[in-house]
Amino acid sequence: MKGRRCDGVGKRWRARYVNAEGDERAQIFATKPQAVEWLDKVAGDIASGRYVDPQRQVITFGEVAEAWKVNPSWTATTRERNLSVLRMHVLPRWGDLRLSAVKHEDLQIWVNELVASGLSSGSVRKIVGVARGVLQMAMRNGRVSMNPADHLQLPRQKVARRRYLTVGQVDRLAQEAGSHEVIVLVLAYCGLRIGELSALRVGNVDRVRRRFMVEASVTEVNGELVWSDPKDHQRRSVPWPRFLDDEIDALIVGRDAADLLFPSPRGDVLRVRNMRRSWFDRAARDAGVPGLTPHELRHTAASIAVSAGASVLAVQRMLGHDKPSTTLNVYSDLFDHDLDDLADRLAAARGQHAADNLRTIAPLAMMTVDAEVA
């Protein structure tokens, strides 16, 4: 603070400092202690690395969101979902506010209102996740010193129990699918995502090794087909079981490498909405598993593989997860039997130890000491 000035109302104190760029920043206070306290806070923020130039906080939440929307790492479906959440839930509440006006306590009140409105815990978490993402970008760009959306109290997410079909249920579903039987079997025994299956071409079939080379995925977004790498960019080789040999042979014989392996009835890309409407939902209902989705056959593939003794690493490679821990987190319930096996092995170890002790002690029990004979 370099001095004070009169503004026509009374004496006021003008505190000022020069930032790292050489720009002067100043603020007027009614009392000297207030001015000194402000300068001390600025000095403390600079020393701790929390300092943010006030001029950089003039921008609104909505302006930061415009930059946040341009994320080259998003898939088409992720982009559509995030933009929908931003447009419908986040910008109406925070879009016109300056960043400096977005406070943690106000965000918590907003979260509580979202919960009270009847939205599911998963929906609330997605909405807050979008707001947090925008504010995280503001923090990375030096517009706020910390993310006010961090450490919010969010509703506990209810995890729905996954449905895993048995081998018998898969067979029944395949029978009800009629001419589409091979699609059901490939999904249920190979664990492909429906977008990966739709993107397979004849040239992606390695008949000698019984492998599908998963190199692309196709998704319908707002009626348009969007082609991309597989999720997490995990191009991979997926085996199919021997009993599918004849069906796969029938799909590739006499066809060009560029032809789709599983086209729609009209020869176009297989779209999941059309597939469900045309035959999948009916087949699921008639097979006794109404409401089943194609993605649940991917879960079923994981279940069948684990039941057959596949390791976590093998399941991870089949499903295309980025790391084994992802597979364990997603399908932890499938590996519960490991605990049962562990308990049985521990019991067996103790039993073996007891048996060994009996074999060692028994001969000693038969030994006697006779009285001394005079």
Account of the 3D structure:
The chain has 374 residues and is mostly helical. It folds into three domains: 4-51, no CATH class; 61-141, DNA polymerase, domain 1 (Orthogonal Bundle); 167-334, hpI Integrase, Chain A. 49% of the residues lie in helices and 10% in strands. The chain contains 14 helices and eight strands. The protein has helices at 32-48, 61-68, 76-94, 104-116, 121-140, 167-176, 181-190, 194-199, 245-252, 272-286, 294-307, 312-319, 324-330, 337-365, and strands spanning 3-6, 11-18, 24-29, 205-206, 211-214, 217-221, 224-228, 236-239. Strands 1-2-3 form a three-stranded antiparallel β-sheet, covered by helices on one side. Strands 4-5-8 form a three-stranded antiparallel β-sheet. The protein has a two-stranded antiparallel sheet with strand order 6-7. The radius of gyration is 32 Å and the shape is extended. The model is unreliable at 1-9 and 364-374 (pLDDT under 50).
Structurally, the number of domains stands at 3
Provide the low-confidence segments as ranges. 1-9, 364-374
Kindly state the percentage of residues in helix.
Answer: 40-55%
CATH fold naming of the largest domain: hpI Integrase, Chain A
Mean pLDDT: 86
Give the N-terminus to C-terminus distance in angstroms: 114 Å
Number of helices: 14
**What value does the Rg take, in angstroms?**
32 Å
User: In percent, how much strand structure appears in the residues?
Assistant: 5-15%
Oligomeric state of the chains in view: single chain
User: How many β-strand stretches?
Assistant: 8
Spatially, the strands of the biggest sheet line up as 1-2-3
**What would CATH call the architecture of the largest domain?**
Orthogonal Bundle
Structural class: mainly alpha
Taken in chain order, the helices and strands follow as: EEEHHHHHHHHEEEEEHHHHHH
